[in-house]
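ARCHIVE CARD
Drawer: 12
Card no.: 0347
Subject: one protein chain, sequence and derived structure
Cross-reference: see card 0346
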Amino acid sequence: MNMNYGSMGPGAMVRCRQCSSSITAMPGARAVQCMQCSCVTRVSGRGRQQHGYGQGYGGNGGGMLMPPMRPTPAFGGGRGKKRAVLIGIKYTNRRSCELRGPINDVKCMRYLLTERFGFPNDCVLILTDEERNPCRQPTKDNIRMAMHWLVQGCSYGDSLVFQFSGLGAQVPDDDGDELDGMDEALCPVDSFQQGPILDDEINEAIVRPLVHGVKLHAIVDACHSATVLDLPYQCTVSKQTGRWRWRDERPMTGACKGTSGGQAVLISGSSNGKSNMSVLPEPYATIGAMTHSFIRAVECEPRTTYARLLTSMRAIMRDSSGNCNLQGPIGGSIRKVANFSGVEEPQLSSAYKFDVEREPFCM
């Protein structure tokens, strides 16, 4: 799919911050990914064109670099109260970063949502690089439009799910809204041509538009994805008490990273950024470690709290056997767990603090 957002002029040349290769940045791009070393480099303000896109999402004026959305393509599907976007990317034919596991992540998540949580099949939008329909390929443009489809017209009582399994990246922050000085990003299938999708844009797209009574769960299995929704609060385990506690992640700049009254929860994993892509023989069907631990924890205890869910995920991740034991027709055919994202611990972030020991988990 080739979307033209107007005459934006020629791209800028950028030097990779790791290997110094020359990269052509698409007009308006905020970051580019190097084909030589996969490192993500930010495009300086001088090298990208600033566009006056007006109000953007959620009625927030100014500051948004995401192009205005065209009408959603022929995704098909319904607009029920429960909707999901599931994205799995193998990066086929990219030998330096080809993954095994993300497609099965999506298939197993779809089974969980439809069989356990009552999501209608036609309200679950799937984007993978095995899809033949060009509109279902996980390109940067299609992912942007899928995020828009997910939250568009959301209203009280909606339960939304966003899943991404694939590659993540980090890039130095340039607007002071990251406590660690790094922005996180998700890499679409055309990331080397179009650049990654930064956490600032993801926050604008699927967090800010959430109105009162709407709840979004994001499950992200990718390296460098711990705070990829830019949510204000992060739940971690206290080393002194062993209990879960909230940490304030709001930026010192005062930038608003919350919702428009709804709730957003990110379940991700802290990782060392090292993937484990090719350690299994080709015949094995695999699933991502973070996704596997999430689905397995829910299957073992469907009625649980957020704290018990995270604790169960930790225990499953620490099981060194690497064997998959999921229910359903897809789960039964998967034999091994592949930690392609290098995840070490499950992590929870939220738009609002809540009692994780008592709050029931439900999607």
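Annotation on reverse: DSSP finds seven helices and 19 strands in the chain. The first strand starts at residue 12 and ends at 15.
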